Automatic annotation (TrEMBL):
Species whose genome carries this gene: Mycena venus
Region of interest: Disordered: 287-306
UniProt KW keywords: Membrane, Transmembrane, Transmembrane helix
Superkingdom per UniProt: Eukaryota
Transmembrane segments: 20-38, 50-74, 132-156, 202-220, 226-249
Residue spans of biased composition, Polar residues class: 296-306
Entry protein name: Uncharacterized protein
Length: 306
């Protein structure tokens, strides 16, 4: 039984709304990541700095992408409402400059996310290059297919859609390459700890799920793929931002432990939250009664305990 197509005019509205919601989530994650970076400046290392720079680039790309979607939505439903095909005729025309620019932002964000995953894999594998050969090849394939897709957009007739036969091969290759690179990042890693693989994999599961679902919907020419397509750009940023925050917090914790005196570690200093508890001197008075040996006399001992 064939899927009933979701109306394109509603599809573009829902897609823009979902991207705006996810972008708001990304904004919160990015802001918290900046705060963590500022407050943990003494615990920074080269790996943390690279991850933070990539996070900034992703935020800028996501901001430009949501702004372009807003621009296109206003033009489509306000300026082109009475034009040929109405809003759908404008928003669905993939050869327009604003669509090509928006798609380029999406492809760049996805490739940057996959490149960051390969870099993260290389770090976790103690900089052993043999573990990133396959992910790197998939990354190169994604870059080539993205460039070919954007180049073909210019030559597509205005009446054709994203499901044009000349495009499907390159778009499918791009989506498959992105999903495979993300998968191999987690499971080709044989040197990193199980905790690192599990935590990174859990944070990336949402992004991987959206990519697989997007590929499935595009393969059956279903219009709802537009909704997931617009959700990818902020989702990549959210995923990477959460991983960056986790890495920074762990580095900060390790730095704190390195600054602790060995004697204090052995003594087991207790804390309330992050505030260490101070020793308080306590005066103890003991009163001992020995009727048999002292004839009923009382003796007292004073001491200081801490």
């Amino acid at each position: 039984m064939a899927l009933k197509q979701f109306p394109l005019d509603r599809t573009f509205l829902v897609a823009a709304w979902l991207e705006a919601v996810l972008y708001g989530c990304f904004l919160c994650v990015f802001s918290f990541g900046v705060y963590i970076q500022i407050t943990s400046n003494k615990a920074r290392n080269t790996h943390n700095r690279v991850m933070f720079i990539i996070s900034i680039a992703m935020f800028l790309l996501a901001s430009a992408h949501v702004a372009m979607n807003c621009f296109r939505l206003i033009r489509g439903y306000a300026e082109f409402v009475d034009g040929p095909g109405g809003p759908v005729g404008y928003l669905g025309q993939i050869s327009r400059w604003d669509h090509i620019f928006k798609d380029t932002l999406y492809a760049t964000q996805t490739i940057l996310g996959d490149g960051a995953a390969v870099y993260r894999c290389w770090i976790l594998c103690n900089r052993n290059y043999k573990f990133i050969v396959l992910p790197s090849m998939l990354l190169v394939a994604s870059i080539m297919s993205a460039c070919m897709t954007d180049a073909l957009f210019i030559t597509i007739p205005p009446s054709e859609s994203i499901f044009y036969p000349r495009l499907t091969h390159w778009i499918t290759t791009f989506l498959h390459g992105c999903g495979s690179a993300e998968h191999n990042h987690h499971w080709s890693d044989g040197v990193s700890t199980l905790a690192d693989r599990t935590e990174d994999g859990a944070l990336s599961s949402l992004y991987l799920f959206i990519e697989i679902l997007l590929l499935s919907l595009y393969s059956v020419n279903y219009n709802a793929q537009y909704i997931l397509l617009e959700a990818v750009t902020p989702t990549v940023g959210i995923t990477f931002g959460m991983i960056t925050i986790r890495i920074t917090l762990r580095s900060h914790r390790e730095w704190q432990l390195s600054q602790t005196e060995p004697g204090e570690l052995r003594g087991g200093i207790q804390t309330i939250g992050s505030v260490p508890m101070r020793r308080i001197p306590v005066k103890i008075t003991q009163q001992i009664q020995d009727d048999a040996r002292s004839g009923g006399k009382n003796s007292s001992m004073d001491g200081i305990s801490s």
